[in-house]
């Protein structure tokens, strides 16, 4: 008797969602990548080696020179105007957003001071100074052109500027077209080589930094630029007081002349009319005496005001205190040679792209 066998139910596997892959597929793809690497490893190696060689040669032929950093730390303060305006700029923390909430209209406070230090007229004044470098007096702008590298880079193809030199110090309005172009290029390059910034958030000390390809140039620039800032600051900050001082000096001179003339007239009149007893004669003597006394009072008052104005001018002048001068030897910054690393990285990317393209156009093997 045959016993009927039970029918087996087939196992139905649920398909995976489209955003997932099974471990079996992962192994299959890994095997394919292994085969791709076995077929193309030499392509990747050759491209990476070529990229590394090109980067190494680029490093060897690089024209980048080491730079020298000169830094001077100073404090600005001590000036106090007689008109009640803020003259003490020692608290320059407000210049960088650490003090007053409202901006100050003064040139020498807030971000204005930073822009002022880097402004073209102030920088040009510094460059037009005759300075002593390595024991030789030279125009700073000419030394800059000779040692900053601008002739080998910005002026590499300009034969006129490569041989150009300033004949001597002069004002901007007296520049020739060639001098204007040279100064413009120098200022554009120098703007990226100098920096003015606070030493610390809680301090009013400022640092002036210059980074050039020549050590004596960096040192000479920061030292002379600070002198230029101090001179120009005093000139602008005390402008009104100096104008009033000039007026008072002219007034004192005028009163002195008139007083001398009146006193001479009075002395001459008294010598000529010693025995006069008539009223008209005495009246004239009284007038001259009165005028002389009045002019004396005005003269003494003007002299007192002049002395007070001179003292006020001294009080208004700021005090630039050098906290940390330029320290020798200067810090020497050697440019990093990253050409070889960049060449290896680019070679790796290009090698992977070459393998991808090679595999994409590779003819599949015919199936039997």
From TrEMBL:
Protein name (Swiss-Prot/TrEMBL): Lipopolysaccharide biosynthesis protein
Assigned GO CC terms: plasma membrane
InterPro entries according to UniProt: Bact_polysacc_biosynth/exp
Organism: Fibrella aestuarina BUZ 2
Leader peptide range in chain numbering: none
Key word Secreted present: no
Assigned keywords, A-Z: Membrane, Transmembrane, Transmembrane helix
Top-rank taxon, per record: Bacteria
Coiled coil region boundaries: none
MF term (GO), any: protein tyrosine kinase activity
Membrane-spanning residues: 41-58, 338-357
């Amino acid at each position: 008797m045959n016993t009927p066998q039970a029918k087996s139910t087939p196992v139905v596997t649920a398909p995976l969602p489209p955003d997932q892959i099974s471990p079996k597929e992962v192994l299959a793809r890994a095997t394919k990548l292994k085969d791709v690497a076995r077929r193309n490893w030499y392509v990747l190696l050759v491209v990476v080696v070529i990229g590394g060689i090109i980067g190494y040669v680029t490093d060897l032929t690089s024209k980048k020179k080491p730079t020298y950093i000169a830094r001077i730390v100073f404090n600005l303060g001590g000036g106090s105007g007689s008109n009640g305006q803020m003259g003490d700029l020692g608290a320059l923390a407000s210049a960088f957003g650490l003090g007053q909430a409202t901006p100050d209209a003064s040139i020498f406070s807030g971000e204005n001071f930073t822009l002022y230090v880097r402004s073209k007229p102030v920088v040009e004044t510094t460059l037009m100074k005759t300075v002593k470098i390595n024991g030789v007096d030279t125009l700073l702008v000419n030394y800059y052109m000779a040692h900053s590298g601008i002739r080998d880079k910005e002026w590499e193809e300009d034969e006129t500027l490569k041989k150009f030199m300033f004949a001597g110090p002069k004002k901007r309005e007296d520049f020739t077209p060639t001098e204007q172009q040279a100064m413009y290029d120098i200022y554009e390059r120098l703007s990226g080589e100098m920096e003015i910034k606070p030493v610390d958030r809680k301090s009013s000390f400022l640092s002036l930094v210059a980074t050039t390809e020549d050590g004596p140039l960096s040192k000479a620039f920061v030292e002379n630029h600070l002198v230029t800032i101090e001179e120009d600051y005093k000139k602008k900050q005390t402008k009104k007081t100096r104008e009033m001082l000039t007026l008072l000096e002219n007034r004192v001179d005028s009163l002195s002349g008139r007083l001398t003339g009146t006193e001479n007239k009075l002395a001459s009149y008294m010598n000529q009319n010693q025995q006069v007893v008539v009223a008209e004669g005495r009246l004239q003597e009284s007038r001259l005496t009165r005028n002389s006394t009045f002019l004396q009072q005005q003269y003494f008052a003007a002299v007192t005001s002049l002395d007070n104005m001179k003292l006020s001018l001294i009080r208004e002048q700021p005090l630039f205190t050098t906290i940390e001068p330029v320290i020798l030897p200067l810090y020497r910054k050697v440019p990093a040679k990253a050409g070889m690393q960049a060449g290896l990285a680019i070679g790796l990317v290009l090698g992977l792209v070459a393998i991808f393209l090679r595999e994409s156009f590779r003819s599949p093997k015919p199936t039997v």
